[in-house]
Amino acid sequence: MVRVIPYVIYLLLLAMYQVIFANMISIYGATVNLAALMVMLVASFKSEAAATWFGFFCGIVLAAGIPDAVGWQALVLALLGMVAFHFREKLNLESLRARLILVVSGVLAHNLLNIAIVHADAFWYRLFIDGVLGTIYTGLIAWLFYLVKEKKLTYQSIKSIF
Amino acid sequence: MNLLSSLLARSWRNVHLAIITVLSIALISGLFGVERFVSRVVVSGLYEPFFYIKNAVNDLTTAADERDVLRESLVEASMKLSLQEEAFRENLRLRSILGFEPPASYHIIPAKVISVSGVGLPTAAIINRGSKDSIKVDQSVINQAGLVGRIIAVTENHATVQLLTDPLNRVAARVSSSREMGIVKYRTNRGLILDNFPVQGTVAVGDTILTSGLGGIYAPGLLIGTVTSVERPEREPLCKVDIATAANFRSIEELFVLLAEEPWSE
After folding, report:
1. Which residues contact A154 (CB under 8 A, 6 or more apart)?
2. A60 confidence band (pLDDT: 50, 70, 90)
3. Domains by residue range for chain A, with CATH
């Protein structure tokens, strides 16, 4: 039960991001796909079951405002988590770049599927904004996350710049 | 053993996947409206607290912006009110001046005080009239209440007025009722007094003191003030008479310089 608590906190963070920060930090309509990013990160560090179930619940939280898309989002993100886990296992990713490519690919896949699930109109516009810009934006955040996690970006190193 | 555990692990994975797939299909198909129920639960359980926070923050931000706007409006309104109050006071002053008439055979030149000097009560004032306005030294200066002082220095555009409150100033005066004379002067510790007035003289509290015109500086009959106390010490030839000035020297703004149409001394 205790092992579930971090995931509940992640889901709360996702809800908070969706409500408060998603619009706040969007650049020309492109915003960070935190749900996909979280699922990919959980798949990169945790077990298959954790990644799959977390993906499922992330999908529910992500699409809570659009009941018709809840099932699709849950399924897509659950599959994304599972597939990402298997990629991680099979490819045995070590370098930062390889892990980043995996995360960015997952985010891109989710963004494209998201367009198919939610956005029926303005396909090319959404493809550019969500598919390309949104993926780049999310990739940058993932890169920062890995830099911090691997202690390549620390408070001291930032301080030394100034 | 390894094979068994591998099989178990694989079957567990399949169980997970199967459950997730079934749940997802249930949500996609909208079986019994489950997707709406789930959506409602998530929105009310997870989203709503953050909606409240967001709205509270928005309200605070809006309130802060409104507060800034209101503060600016308040400053603007205060300034306008202050200007209006000042205009109202000026209006009252000018109304009281409007009915003011100079003594006979004099005409008046209105002037505005541009600065005053002196510690506590002002003892001198500079007005915005000078020699080009026919202002000369020793002309009397009054306001609507009474005598204020005399001109002691003149430049082309400005003149300096020695006020009654200057201890060096002396005014030949008389008591209006008894016509008895004395010298009005200002003592820093007592205020305006009527000096050189004999103890046998007739003066009482409430009597008005006017300029006598003697000495050739001040025009006769100008109101200086009102007697506030009279002391007649024994074995002294002169009594002590205190006077309250008619003019308020703390708030002199508009003054009038008296110009003799025909010099009264001549």
Report:
1. A148
2. very high
3. 2-161 (1.10.1760)
The ipTM value here is: 0.79
Q: What backbone phi and psi angles, to 5 degrees, belong to B96?
A: -70, -30
CA distance A138 to A101: 12
Using DSSP's 3-state secondary structure scheme, residue A88 falls into helix
- Average predicted confidence (pLDDT) for chain A: 87
In this prediction, residue B264 carries a pLDDT of: 46
Interface list for chain B against chain A, based on CB atoms closer than 8 Å = 12-13, 16-17, 20-21, 23-30, 35-36, 38-39, 42-43, 46-47, 50-51, 53-54, 57
The position carrying tokens 């003191």 is B209
Q: Are B224 and B209 in contact (CB under 8 A)?
A: yes
Q: Which of A11, A67, A82 sits opposite B17 (nearest CB)?
A: A82
**Do A60 and B38 lie within an 8 Å CB cutoff?**
yes
CB A79 within 8 A of CB A55: yes
Q: Where are the beta strands (DSSP E) in chain A?
A: none
Check CB contact under 8 Å for A52 and B16.
yes
Q: For residue B68, give how far its alpha carbon lies from the nearest alpha carbon of chain A (Å).
A: 23
Tokens of B141: 């200066």
3-state SS track over chain B? CHHHHHHHHHHHHHHHHHHHHHHHHHHHHCHHHHHHHHHHHHHHHHHHHHHHHHHHHHHHHHHHHHHHHHHHHHHHHHHHHHHHHHHHHHHHHHHHHHCCCCCCCEEEEEEEEEEEECCCCCCEEEECCCHHHCCCCCCEEECCCCEEEEEEEECCCCEEEEECCCCCCEEEEEECCCCCEEEEEEECCCEEEEECCECCCCCCCCCEEEECCCCCCCCCCCEEEEEEEEECCCCCCECEEEEEECCCHHHCCEEEEEEECCCCCC
pLDDT band for position B36 (cuts 50, 70, 90) = confident
Structural domains present in chain B: 1-99 (no CATH), 107-260 (2.40.10.340)
Can you tell me the distance from the alpha carbon of B176 to that of B198, in angstroms, rounded to the nearest whole number? 16
| DSSP single-letter state for residue A33 | -
Using CA atoms, how far apart are residues B113 and B247, in angstroms rounded to an integer?
14
Neighbours of B112 (CB within 10 A): 11
Q: Do B30 and A49 touch (CB under 8 A)?
A: no
